[in-house]
Amino acid sequence: MAAFLNNCRFIPAAGGTTDWVYSSAVGGCQSPALAGAVDGRKYKFIAISSDLTQWEIAEGAYTAASGTFARTIVLCNSSGSGVAAGQSGAGSRISFGAAPNVAIVGVKEDLISIEEPNGFTAGQMAQARANIGVTRKNYLLNGGMQVSQENGTTAGATAGYYPADQWRSEFSNAGVVSSAQVASSTPGGSPYRIRMTVTTADASVASSDYYIISQRIEGNRMADLRFGTAAAKTITVQFGVRAPAGIYCVAIRNGAPNRIITAEYTIGAGEANADVIKNVTFAGDTAGTWAFDHTAGMEVMFVLMGGSSFVQSPNTWSGASSVFASANQFNFMGTVGNVFELFDVGLYEGSVAPPFQLPDFSEELDRCQRYWEKSYDYATPVGTATNNGVRGSLQNSAPASYGAGTFLKRKRVAPTVTLYSPFNGAAGNGYDTANRATSAANVGETQYMIVNAFGSSTTPILYHYTANARL
After folding, report:
1. Which helix H or strand E contains 172, and what residues bound it?
2. Is the full-model pTM beyond 0.70?
3. 265-316, pLDDT tens digit by residue?
4. Adjacent-strand bridge partners of 400
5. The CATH number of the domain covering residues in 161-368
6. How far apart are CA 255 and CA 260, in angstroms?
């Protein structure tokens, strides 16, 4: 499928079988440059001799520097030697006796029809979805940073901290960084984003220093991308970012991990510390092993710091496990007060990403609870002394009692369950008339059993819980 230009008609420098090099516009018409011809883009054009005895419809790319339209594919012509239906299939160029009149045109195959099938390529379908704002599946969860069950808007400065569900802050360096979900409207309409702030700088990047924000994607969720096969699909990561000027990296790796690729993007001086939308495209990996089950299938990493041990050339799949940065990676940790914000993140099939569409909050919460949930009300921090949402089980007999509980959502795998006293929030406890040591046993994907020290046979054991099945 070729692109269109409005009223572009010109006389080339010469006839013959050469490519068409612009010489002058036909009266009342536009030159390729004035019509907005894009360098490298493919166009279809018809050439007609002044006596109307010779003509040719061909397709080829435009080269702006020389004003040339390449006659790469001859579709049809006056001698019947094109590749289109009804022609000989030779695709031979007409040898024009003099410079013809050349016009940019659209043919039937370039037009969308509702009367018959359209033979779109994967790239064209992706572009069409982007043009009309239709989102194909976003393989990432919580890309709008709306859901933060565990930590709410509380900031954390430890490695492995989740400022929002599914988004993990990982680092090892001499500095300190605080990460949190913050209330701040995004271009995509989310009321939240995640913010990373340097509180202690590390201006000297050691070989083993790094800082990444990442999300792991369950293999079941990305199986249709066909990674690890000859049919692996191209993917595009589109995201909103606010950061200091510099070159940053985004990396994709498998769950093993033993396959990885990185790409660079640039925050220009005029974009520094302002909301901007960036995207990077990755060719699908045809090698390696990519899990298509309930284990980690893919990890998306946003790199803020990377020492020499983690550096590789961009845009090339590697068999290493931890080469997620390029040699140009900006050291975000270099200055106290540096802020990196991430928002409106999507990973899509194809080379063109659609505008970010904010998911419904309740649906996104449901998806996130496959990996982590709590019995507390959504806005209540874990470990709070409260009976709201509390679970309970009657005592059975000394020296212990048992009871069963059900999760809100089926988990990816049997989760790690931690119980909390509603009396004072103490972990590993339930409460009847006092805190009792309480734990979970026989944990499955949907239910669990609690076991606790015997207290009062007439008073229920009450408890809160968290269930962690994160990748």
Report:
1. strand 167-172
2. yes
3. 999 999 999 999 999 999 999 999 999 999 999 999 999 999 999 999 999 9
4. 397, 453
5. 2.60.120.430
6. 10
What is the arithmetic mean of pLDDT over 56-67?
97
Contact 146, 191 (CB under 8 A): yes
> Which residue in 357, 441, 403, 444 sits closest to 138, CA to CA?
357
Asked if residue 25 lies in contact with residue 7, where contact means CB atoms within 8 angstroms, the answer is: no
Residue 78 makes CB contacts below 8 A (sequence gap 6+) with: 53, 54, 55, 56, 94
Structure token pair of residue 212: 């990444």
- C-alpha closest to that of 142 among 351, 370, 338: 370
In terms of C-beta distances under 8 Å and separation of at least 24 residues, what long-range contacts does 158-166 make, across chains too? Answer: 162/372, 163/194, 163/195, 163/196, 164/192, 164/194, 165/141, 165/368, 165/371, 165/372, 166/140, 166/141, 166/142, 166/215, 166/216, 166/368, 166/371
Q: Which residues contact 191 (CB under 8 A, 6 or more apart)?
A: 146, 183, 184, 185
Other Cβ atoms within 10 Å of 229 Cβ, number: 13
| CA 377 to each of CA 188, 298, 365, 386, 423: distance values in angstroms, whole numbers, following the listed order | 27, 31, 13, 10, 16
Using only C-alpha atoms, the chain has a radius of gyration, in whole angstroms, of 30
In whole angstroms, give the CA distance from residue 402 to residue 180: 38
At 339, list the tokens.
Answer: 């802020």
Q: Give the separation between CA 336 and CA 203, rounded to whole angstroms.
A: 10
Q: Distance (Å, rounded) from C-alpha 82 to C-alpha 75?
A: 5
Burial of 145 (0-12, 13-18, 19+ CB in 10 A): buried
Cα 377 to Cα 385: distance, rounded to the nearest angstrom: 12
How far, in Å, CA of 280 to CA of 369, rounded? 29
Question: Where do the domains of the chain lie?
Answer: 9-110, 161-368, 372-468
* Residue 306 DSSP one-character state: E
